[in-house]
Amino acid sequence: MAGNDIKAAEKTYDSFIGSLKWSVPLIALITAIVVILIAD
Does the predicted TM-score (pTM) go above 0.90? Predict the structure, then answer.
C-alpha cells in the first residue's frame, strides 16, 4: 500500500515540476513586458 502512495506522489510531483518549468519563465516574461510598458 505504501508503494502505491509513493508512485502516486511521484506522479504528482513530476506533473508539478513539469508545469513549473513552463509557468515560471512565462510569468517572468509577462512581468518583464509589463514593466517595460509601464516604464515607457
Answer: no
